[in-house]
Amino acid sequence: MPINNDNHVELQERISAIHSNTLLNDDKQQDGVYKSLDDLESADNDGALVEGGALDLFSREAAGLFMQYAAIGVIYGMIPALKYPVFNVYLNL
After folding, report:
1. Residues 46, 61 within the same domain
2. What is residue 1's predicted lDDT score, i.e. its pLDDT?
3. How many domains is the chain partitioned into structurally?
4. CB within 8 A of 34, min separation 6: which ones?
């Protein structure tokens, strides 16, 4: 006779939900991560999502971020535009 595991899965989901709700009530901040929007706004971080200050625009990290942003723009902008020249002109399809 086949065993129906639907009840077992539902029980695990309910236990998981109960467990996560009790953890949220125990402490509002765990491992430096804020649990609610009120805690984030009331903290001394001026609404920042992560610790640390603002990124200097002329730093190496900022230059890498800008280059990555430009590369994604090239990929998403130029490659679809090359469809006509490659297929119709070069390959004569």
Report:
1. no
2. 47
3. 2
4. 28, 40, 43
Shared domain check, 62 and 45? no
Residues 6+ apart with CB under 8 A from 39: 28, 29
| 3-class SS shares of the chain: helix, strand, coil, % to 5 | 60, 5, 35
Q: pLDDT tens track of the chain, all 93 residues?
A: 455 555 655 666 666 666 665 555 555 555 556 556 665 556 566 666 677 777 889 999 999 999 999 999 999 998 888 888 888 888 888
Q: Are residues 43 and 15 in the same domain?
A: yes
Q: Which domain, by its residues, includes 69?
A: 55-93
**DSSP assignment letter at 68:** H
In this structure, the number of other CB atoms found within 10 A of the CB of residue 35 comes to 14
Q: State which amino acid sits at residue 90.
A: Y
